[in-house]
Design goal:
The chain is mainly α. The chain has helices spanning 2-12, 16-37, 41-58, 68-87, 104-111, 115-123, 127-138, 143-150, 154-185. Helix 5 (104-111) packs across helix 9 (154-185). It is globular, with a radius of gyration of 20 Å.
Length: 189
């Protein structure tokens, strides 16, 4: 922990070497976060760069009351939210079932998909659904908090989450069917 404090002190003095060290420590985790909130790799890279600039510019505001990574993560999430708000407003889809238990086929389909593939499927979601999905499922915000953050009704947040889940389910099932078909065509089953 002391080493991190030294790095941050160096960053506060505009020491480029310390800024590079801070970047190298946290860039992989923050890039993963950026990928979840972005529609493309290029958008994620832009978000990563903008996020680190914002972190460097606001290091003096870090009070050492909690984890530095958590503080940094909040900056990146807020930046992603700001970018999102400037692009699009959330749509409401009111008649989507929210709590459906996965079937055995759905569980088997999920077993055959990698984390990288899941992240790619999440990135393919429309912006409004990807934002709600990430904030609710991954960041752990409630629908009430999402409503306040995104300036939408709780019911809109719920319906966007349900629609995101439905789209992901369809994409996973489609992918699984394509793999099964390819295996059958190649004579392996």
């Amino acid at each position: 922990m002391e080493k991190l404090k030294d790095i941050i002190k160096g960053c506060l003095k505009d020491d480029r070497q310390m800024q590079s060290k801070l970047y190298n420590i946290f860039a992989p985790k923050m890039y993963g976060l950026c990928l979840r909130y972005s529609a493309s790799v290029e958008d994620a890279q832009d978000l990563l760069q903008e996020g680190f600039i914002k972190v460097y510019n606001n290091l003096g505001n870090f009070k050492w009351e909690g984890s530095f990574e958590g503080w940094m993560r909040r900056i990146f999430v807020n930046l992603a939210l700001d970018k999102y708000r400037s692009k699009i407003s959330l749509l409401s889809i009111d008649e989507v079932a929210e709590n459906q238990e996965p079937s055995d086929n759905e569980i088997n389909a999920l077993d055959s998909i990698s984390e990288k593939e899941i992240l790619e499927l999440i990135r393919q979601l429309p912006d409004q659904y990807r934002m709600v999905f990430n904030l609710y499922v991954i960041e752990g915000y409630s629908h009430k908090e999402l409503g306040e953050m995104l300036n939408i009704r709780e019911s809109t947040s719920r319906s966007n989450l349900a629609r995101a889940k439905m789209i992901l389910k369809e994409k996973v099932e489609f992918r699984s069917q394509k793999i099964e078909k390819a295996i059958c065509e190649n004579g392996k089953i």
